[in-house]
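To: structure subgroup
Subject: Chain for Friday's discussion

All,

I'm putting the inputs and outputs inline so they're searchable in the archive.
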Amino acid sequence: MSFIFNAGTKIVCGSAGKPVLNAVSILRRDMSKVFTGGAVCENEIVLENHASADDESYEISVGGRVTVRAGGDLGFVYALLYISENYLGVKPFWFWMDQKLERKESVLIDEGVTKSKKYAVRFRGWFFNDEVLMLKWKINGDERETWRMAFETLLRCGGNMTIPGTDKMSRKNRQLAADMGLWITHHHAEPLGAEMFARRYTGVDASYTKHPEMFYELWDEAAREQKDYKVVWNLCFRGQGDKPFWGDDKSGKFDTPEKRGALISEVIAKQRDLVKKYVQNPVFCTNLYGEIMELYKDGYINLDDDIIKVRADNGYGKMVTRRRDSHNVRVSSMPEKDGGSQGIYYHVSFYDLQAANHITMLPNSVDFVNRELNAVLENNGGAFWIINCSNVKPHVYFLDAVRKKWEGKNISDETHSAEFASDYFGADENIRRAFKEYPNVMLRFGGNEDEKAGEQFYTENARVLAHSLIRADFGGAGGLKWIADGTLFEQAKTLLNICLNGMGALERYFDMCRSISGGLSASVKPLFDETVFLQAKIHYYCARGMIALCKSVIEFGEKNYKDAFLFAGDSAALYDTANNEMRASENGVWRGFYSNDCFADIKHSAYMARKAMGTIREYGDNARHDTWQRDAAYSEEDRDVFLLLLTDNHMTDDELYKEMREK
């Protein structure tokens, strides 16, 4: 017998806990979005406890009624979201992709039984890191709704764990995440999710050797606060921020790898014992991140067998240690088959002040990600995956790809682009091609396969370049030595050549997206323009802005000050264009989404280019600021007559730039 799913269907859940009640509320909301009119017939979806099943498994039986049996809260949550997706058509990223749901009177569900499948990864979730856009943007003015929707999406993707924000936000959002059924884990620089030492003990030297009791107080407090949550406890010891602790400790006692590893090992053992005071059978992990990976590889850190060892990619999807400044040893961080319980911290978004992606997609291919994650699973790395999702919206394409990986599927640029386009764009072949081609046109800044540039390459480095010009640091910018050596002018030439080598592909991709956009229907065009085409625009205009600024610095070095001034003005205008395109994409619920773009900070790149204009003008114009204005604005017959010094107000740099450009 078939089941008629309709507006009259009741959901009977008895004395369910908060996670299940939340999922029931989500399903009812989705029913109201899909079903039209009144009830076709009254029937029931009934939730029944199945004591012998594990917490995440479920069984859906369809007959005269729908019976959902599960062993725990997450099993019921996943089952109800399965019903939402498979019978109402609500896709995992429906909210972030503005999915338009098909309205209908009812849905006929065939009789039968559906059983949940086992995931390839035990603990799987998202780290809302560098979440600066979500700090200011609110859904209809409600900050909690923003996070509620983010956690709902994670659950729809089959996630069961989260780091629910960075620093203060992680503690603020813990309860909501737990109420929705998620496990909590912690930032790799926040032991046990405790408050940062420097925030609690302002002005006190953050030295464990001097103040061990203060650190222990913070850790003990964190354990007590979270003892009733489901937690994967992060055991670690790093500095006050995302950096090594020995940078903060001025005692000089940690001047060798042996000493550093010994302290980390000691602290982890103490944190482990502390948690066991409050929690029975706790789950532990530790992040072998950056310098910690290097110490562990060299045998300086000792870990108990019950600790999940979490290894990290380099921020670009490659399982090697990350680059820090110019230090780029690329030690393998791939799990090892005989390494015990292992997992990964993996980035689809990254912020490194060098070349990573924060407001645009990962610049590497789905094929590449598939290879890396397959190798992780083959090497016994399926105990724990935490994915850096930052602000979600710019990264849904790759978050959807990773979802498929932790489900145990193989993915590729060919298949994933087709499936994603089908789910959210109506299977448009041109849109599929736009997603598939994106990684092929990203600018290369190094010789390794993963070294492709996100938008930070054009924004952060441009600001460093402008800063050095303004300060007359012509010997070379320290912040650029990771990519270019020599004088500032030589660094500008290196950056220029990197950008020029990739500009042709970016321009062709931009033109392709513009052509695709022009041929789309009114129902699809806005979504395409506000997603992949927007990201094409960010790359295209920011890369051109970087090229113009590099030319400005080079011309300045040749004392061609007018040309340098004009190129700096061009750069500012191009960054403005990129920022304006980004802000123009904020429609409907997304109004204000990019207002707090303070990492890539395209608008600040424009600001720094304008400051460079002002500096250049001081070198090329006279002290009275009338020579360039006369040359640009006065007729040839008036230019050399000085009876009146000026006949108009002094021009601002922008006014002068526009006048000079028109000529």
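Points worth raising on Friday:
The longest strand covers residues 43-49.
The chain has 22 helices and 15 strands.

D.
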